[in-house]
Amino acid sequence: RVCWIKDIVVSVTRDNMEAMKGIIQKYQHKRISLVEAGVTRHRSIFNGLKALAEDQPDSKLSKPEVVIIHDAVRPFVEEDILLKVATAAKEHGAAGAIRPLVSTVISPSADGCLDHSLERARHRASEMPQAFLYDVIYAAYQQCSDYDLEFGTECLQLALKYCHVKAKLVEGSPDLWKVTYKRDLYAAESIIKERISQHICIVMDTKEDEEHVGHHLEEMLKNELNVSIQISTGRDLQQIILEQCYSFVCVNVMTSAFEETQKLLNMLKESHLSVLYPVVVISVHFLDYKSVHFDHKMENLMQIRELAKEVKESNVLLCGLLIYYPQDEQKLQDSLRQGATIIATLIKERNSAFIGQLLIA
Amino acid sequence: RVCWIKDIVVSVTRDNMEAMKGIIQKYQHKRISLVEAGVTRHRSIFNGLKALAEDQPDSKLSKPEVVIIHDAVRPFVEEDILLKVATAAKEHGAAGAIRPLVSTVISPSADGCLDHSLERARHRASEMPQAFLYDVIYAAYQQCSDYDLEFGTECLQLALKYCHVKAKLVEGSPDLWKVTYKRDLYAAESIIKERISQHICIVMDTKEDEEHVGHHLEEMLKNELNVSIQISTGRDLQQIILEQCYSFVCVNVMTSAFEETQKLLNMLKESHLSVLYPVVVISVHFLDYKSVHFDHKMENLMQIRELAKEVKESNVLLCGLLIYYPQDEQKLQDSLRQGATIIATLIKERNSAFIGQLLIA
Q: Would you kindly state one Gene Ontology biological process term found in this protein's UniProt entry (chains A, B) (predicted)?
């Protein structure tokens, strides 16, 4: 994802080695080398650093000037903080991301009572990423004791202790927190869902006057979701998919079946966009089900179940939405509003249990 | 919620005072008194303590022996930790919940570089609740300086500094974390949803032999959801509602309309169970829609939209689920499995966008 990073060395426990190789192959990662993890944090990092040393036989890796150390439990690291710590490390020899403390830190006495509490404003939580001149951190690990390797938790401290390098501290974003407890997995899932729902593309099968129902629906979606919404008439779809839009609303005013939706699904399949995250597609149909022959139209639309099952294989979640389209203007507005709420929820939740359903607004 | 707590004093900013009064009235809280919050943490706590002092004119509150201090940003506090800190405070004069540190804590120098890092294993995060002999903490606040009141963050430290009381530290549960960032709100929402989905009641409209579809569905739900499932035949429903079950699956094998569901909805309405959290009710119907006259049955079932709109007022989320019931055993199993997935998702997500929908499995 970050083009100026040359090599990525990942420490993996022996038990997970095969699974990790599978992931690298599945997502076609090119820059990753694997080393076996140690039993402690510092031993794993040391193994990674050794792989980058000059004297490795048969290694395709070359010794870098600056090395960034990061951990997998902080998945939301942004390029700008990587750049900041790498730049600061080049200048100072070492650098690390910090965050304000959320709780006061205290020191217990041996009998489990309060010995003293630290002033919260004068301390920080040390987070990742951290960066170092390679020669500094490698030298520090070569000198450090078995006690350090067993019980140490802080690389910046090793650089200070063994190489007398004072790390530059860089303010990180709130998203650098450590995914530790079950609640953190809930939070991480919600953050990912929010990110991939930030941009919605509405595909219209018509370019009629601005007053038509598709545009009403667009307005209501804007009220419902605080995201960017783009209208497509089909020809620019390839570009929109390339820009990594993960949410599509296919508005079918003119057609009564799935021609437009089918076109979109084919393009999505070819693009491999959905390898990493599920793509949501909602096929919207307008119907005055009190006046037309309900049964026939429904049968037509029930094909969505088969269609949804088929595209599920490629991680595309397809749902149908039937919007009641009566003559009465007020009722139409109500229907559109409810439709917008359903669309917003399907996009935000990305829940595979509802694929193939025909929801009604 | 905790019967041995006599009075609860809440510090509220002037701007939120009216809203807070509204909440107290809505949920009929009996033991809560309100005081105006100060501009800092310690000033707010001091205001609360003053309200409990002996010399308050016109106060209905009396001075307690032990006072527990807690903050609203840790909503998942359990009775057992409250009891632990209160008991320890009675013995030691002060006590507080602690948690292991997730990140290493460091001390920056004035120029933004690392001065030193603390050994993570020797420090703890100080959380809430904390408890004190009332006389200890009130005396500490009366003596503490303006600097303490402005910049201090730790009540245990005040008891130590001014009353020489060494607080007993009590290990808290992971759920005592502080809801601070947006991701914490996501996590809190997921935790609440998980808690109120821990117990499901399946209401059967029949007591036929064990082989019938309702029991198959129950089996599949057990596979899908790791929660306790109780079967009700209707007569014990009152008791189940009293035990605060928030999730109901109404299985209609014998009836084709909503008689059983309607009975349940009436009982829920009378119980006021849904004041605090939404109750999910899923009305399940079996239908071989390839053989019976689809149109007529559907029209019957479409009444669910009106019914759902009506009970939405009382925070009850009603959805319908149509399970395809063919002669073919394999197909029936597939249908039941998909139905169980949909039910599990509706219960876990509790999303009001889907109320009144008739989902199809």
A: isoprenoid biosynthetic process
Instruction: Dig out the tokens for B301 from the structure.
Output: 């079932």
Burial of B57 per CB tally in 10 Å (0-12, 13-18, 19+) = exposed
- Asked whether the beta carbons of residue A190 and residue B191 sit closer than 8 angstroms, the reply is no
Biggest alpha carbon–alpha carbon distance for chain B: 83
- Kindly report the average pLDDT of chain B as a whole number: 91
Confidence class for position A292, pLDDT limits 50, 70, 90: low
CA-nearest residue to B177 within chain A is A103
Place of tokens 């943490």: B41
Contact B305 A107 (CB under 8 A): no
CA distance B354 to chain A (A): 7
Token pair listed for A158: 């090793």
Alpha-carbon distance of B110 to B338, in angstroms, equals: 61
How far apart (Å, rounded) are the C-alpha atoms in residues A102 and A98?
12
**Domains of chain B from N-terminus onward:** 8-180 (3.90.550.10), 191-360 (3.40.50.720)
Would you call A154 and B104 a contact, using CB atoms and an 8 Å cutoff?
yes
Residues from chain B contacting residue A357 (CB–CB below 8 Å): 357, 359-360
The length of chain B is: 361
Tokens 């084709």 map to which residue?
B256
**What tens digit of pLDDT does each residue of A233-288 get?**
888 999 999 999 999 999 987 766 788 899 999 999 999 899 989 999 999 988 77
With CA atoms as reference, report the closest residue to B338 among B292, B264, B284: B284
Whole-number Cα distances in Å, A258 to A199, A255, A282: 23, 8, 11
Q: Which residues of B touch A126 (CB under 8 A)?
A: 103-106, 117
Closest chain A C-alpha to B85 CA, distance in angstroms = 12
Nearest-CA neighbor of A197 among A248, A152, A156, A241?
Answer: A248
- Are B297 and B333 in contact by the 8 Å Cβ rule? The answer is no
CB B225 within 8 A of CB B177: no
Query: What span, in angstroms and rounded, lies between the C-alpha atoms of B112 and A89?
Result: 13
Q: Do B98 and A120 touch (CB under 8 A)?
A: no
Report the pLDDT value the prediction gives residue B292, as an integer from 0 to 100.
54
**DSSP bridge pairs for B10:** B34
Q: Which among A41, A183, A292 is the top mutation candidate for probing chain B, defined by the most B β-carbons within 10 Å of its own β-carbon? A: A183
Interface of A with B in 128-147 (CB under 8 A): none
Chain B hits for A295, CB-CB cut-off 8 Å, are: 294-295
B295 touches chain A (CB under 8 A): yes
Given a cut of 80, is residue B207 above it in pLDDT?
Answer: no
pLDDT tens readout for residues B49-71 = 999 998 777 778 899 999 999 99
Buried/exposed code over B230-262 (b: 16+ C-beta within 10 A; e: otherwise): ebbeeeebeebbeeebbbbbbbbbeeeebebbe
pLDDT tens digits along A58-74: 778 899 999 999 999 99
Q: Is A91 on the interface with B (CB under 8 A)?
A: no
Taking the CA of residue A185 and the nearest CA in chain B, the distance in Å comes to 8
Q: Spell out which residues of chain B touch residue A345, defining contact as CB-CB under 8 Å.
A: 351, 353-354
- What ipTM was predicted for this assembly? 0.87
How far is residue A343's CA from residue A349's CA, in Å, rounded to a whole number?
Answer: 10
